[in-house]
Please model this.
Amino acid sequence: MAEFLIETAGLPAWLSWTAIAVLSAVLILNVIAGGALVFIWAERKIAARIQDRLGPTRTGGRFGWLQSLADGIKLLAKEDLMPDGADALLFRIAPYVSFCASFCAFIALPFAFDVVGQRLNVGVFFVVAVLGLEVFGVILAGYASASKWSLFGAMREAAQVVSYEVPLGMCVVVPVMLAGSMDLVTIGEKQAGWGSNWFIFHDPFTFIIFWVYYTCALASVNRAPFDLAEAESELVAGFHTEYSGLRWSFFFMAEYGSMFLVSALAAILFLGAWNGPVPVSQLLGLSDGMAANAPYALRLLGCMNLLLKATVGVLVMMWIRWTLPRLRIDQVMTTCLKYCTPIAAAMFAGVMLWQLFLPGGLVAGSFQNAAGVREGWLEQSNNQESVNEDALSDIVPSRRIVEVSR
Amino acid sequence: MSQILDEDQRIIEFDVRTDEMLVNMGPQHPSTHGVLRLVLRTDGEIVSEMEPHIGYLHRCAEKIGENLTARQWIPYTDRMDYLAAMNMNLGWSLTVEKLLRYQVSEKARHLRILIAELNRIASHLVGMGAYGLDLGTFSPFLYAFREREKILDLLEEVCGARLTYSYITIGGMTADLPPGWLQRCEAFLDQFEPVIREYHTLLTTNAIFVKRTANVGVLSPEMAIDYGCTGPVLRGSGIDIDLRRDGESIYTAMYDGYAFEVAVMKDGHYPRDHEYPAVPQDAVLGDCWHRFFVRMLEVVQSMDLIRQSIDRYSQCKGPLGEPLKLIEKLPKGDAYLETECPKGQMGFYVVGDGTSIPWRVRARSSAFSNLAVAPELCRGCLIADVPSVVGSLDVVMGEIDR
Amino acid sequence: MNHETFGLSTNLFAFLDWHDFFFLLFAGVACVAAVMVVLSDNVVRMALHLVLSLGATAGLFFLAGAEFVGAMQLMIYVGGTLVLLVFGVMLTAQTQLVALRTPAGDRVIAGILAAALLAVLVQAAFSIESWQKPGQGVATAPTATPLGMALVGVRVDQVAEENLVRPKSGYLLPFEIVSVHLLVVLVGAAYLARAKRRRIPRSVDLVASADSTKPRLPVTASSTLVAGGPK
Amino acid sequence: MTFVLCGVVSVSHYLVVGAILFTCGVVCMALKRNALGVLMGIELVLNGANINFVAFGSEYLAGDGKSVLGLDGEVMALFVILLAAAEAAVALAITLNFYNNHATVDVDRADDLHG
Model:
């Protein structure tokens, strides 16, 4: 798009790049803030439906759809309190740390083929890493509030999130292994075509590991039944006990932002990303399903697809929240260390073996395996540097495996 | 420090020793069921000591009772266990009737059982729903309140109030049932029966719920007796005492001819032919799960009792009988009576001096003794277990502080 | 991203270029935060500044084209190690320990020595001509794949550039050593942090053992009512 | 100054940042009495070194497109990060152990040999 501006509008390069950057930032910010508004409304409505009541009905017409906006305005107008003994700087900065972490992770999140803030070669890794930073804001908030309940919340959060990063990382590695790339766009493109191409249906192991991923994601974004950091029946409100007004709402935007983020990540990694279950455009002959020259309408459709999947993920999180009791801290740790981690490790090994023995899936050739991807990369570098093909085959051991498996 | 650790068994040491913290849970805390204040001495997440502080709701009810006539004090009993005000009314009325050697009509007797058991269901529903809240699940609370609303509607029809009824009074009731009420009550029972299965799915057999409650806060039968625990707390520990069967004759006479079994867990098995979920493997007799489950059983038991009392009440001919006069003179002498209230054995004591105003009025609260055992149960548990223990005791501060 | 506008335009944005701008931003944050780590007394604030510093360093890594290292830095350092550190701070936090002050004299001496050290290092940094040649700007080609292959023993880059018949062995052995090392550390840390563990006496056990060790709990009036009440 | 601000970023710029971080780390290690503060100093020092590794390993910073270290730079940086994490874990364990025994994290008071 920047090229478009440069060429047709005749703007200077720096200006168009800046404009596009600002535009992207505003878009992502709107996804988070607007998303939070919608999700809070949805959470209220869903909770109400689950609990056999109506939820908001008045504000903004029939369905109370302006309720969260009204609440947002109320929060803006609220007095911003800070406890007497609080560490002023840390107390002020903590919500923004959380929010920034959640926000930054969206940079690398692709919404469709090339609708992505910054396509990163290590996209998955970046998103997971940045998401892990959110915990820091929570810890700071808990520490700086000068309240014992907050401190408890912070300690729980620290212990929980650091532990759950282990199985989460293992789960994320599986699609990476299948796609042969950490680039989220590549991972998405690998799942183009029919719904059976989605990684969740790749083999039984990936099917299981998807659920492990979802559990760990639930835990790492602190949603029930893992919402120990704010456990309202034990810790009053945990880490945000002392927060009010806008700062408090930043925590919530961060929470809903990361809920959406992990759901979108689940959609990209396992549920076919922006590809629908039926490759409509391919069947109609509109495009070959790959990026480059796809029309904008297709990208829009892709975005819708991904947003839909991510939203379903978020809705399931809400459903779980309003159904299950909360776990205890030791049980949370047990779930992580005794169940999630070993299962994830076993599934990881399983997927690896599957790749080795059934590289094309049950139906031969339905998948391009990771070894092939690596192969492709090697060949690419060969062509560039024009290295002797035979010499390469001698020295690259992985090549033989690839050939045998073919 | 280490010497103290060696001497005192109660102080718990764990992997990484951290600073001890004194934490105030309450008086304004989401899970202390009113204005209860628990002072926790915590070592990280582990509670090494817990001390309940009470008295935030003290209203001098007993002293007020010595300045009012016996019937005028009925509304004050409403405000003790405000979740089961009918049972409180009943307890006080029976005590004064014992002093007066007065016996209510047969019809009033069945009506009392009907109303009191209905209120017992309402009280247990609150206990159950709020227990879900304590454990972090919100929806069962609203499901419980949905059904409770229906009970409150019924009670409102009877006496015009939804919480503080003052319906059962000395010598009978303030009014008879409105026409058509019995049918509505039966309709409610019929639709309520399947709802209980929902509660079992959402809470009793829910894996996380079981994990949070089974083998937590185990109250041994000996300890339960030592601390004077009563009601579902005592029966949850496997002790087969229910004043409706084992109480004083003036009270048990009320239940003459009623078929019911005391809801108590014997050998981990409840001996009735209703459909109940199996006891989970982790659960030990006397833990939070059992206390909770006993309440669930009592709901079913009360439903049976209500059905029976509806039959008997509608068979009774003749008038209900008027309650005694407001200024009925109390004879010289005293009377003490304990009744089986939803929270436990609620005792009232009255001393008459020949005037209509009692010379002494005292109340013995079941929740008070039940709460007293909480520090023992919470010693060495995690912070998250404190709400689950206190919630399973199901205390009402209005009754403790009076 | 061309540098031809450099020096010609008076516009600040064009003058700076985004790559340089972000370098300055990240470098500035990293350095200022590092200095703040030294200057602050409060351990938690030190941790916050350290997070800022290390996070900005990760940004620098991204700018230098080392995306994988940058993400690794974010994940392991900022998300893992520092959370662990703050956790440690909270476990050991007593009010007087959070801020252990350093004598002013020590600070002055340390400041002088640090200035000297810094001077030497900066001088060294600018001492070699070829290091000062400006680079090509923004990273484009991915490095994660060659990095991964190097770790399992295949040096793609060496193959490509020198057309070797036998490549260097890569980093398979160090990789293994590091993994074993990590395992050892895990076990060691768990062992070190373990105090002598004692079974937590539950209240039931206490009552059971109460007969011998402690006087029996006082029997309340109401319990006689229950136990010996009218039948 | 104009060079620092206007010049296109080169290896030297990274080295300066690394140097500042390194120096801060050293001062931190020397000055802080809190054991955790010392630990943070170590992290800073390792990071300063890491910046150098990455800078030397990056093709995009070297003027002629040929980096000094090539891929080795990044691999070394990775190993440093991993070992730093391991070191932090052990050091934290030691600190906690020390705290358990002495009820303080002041390194100046860690002056007796038996734990």
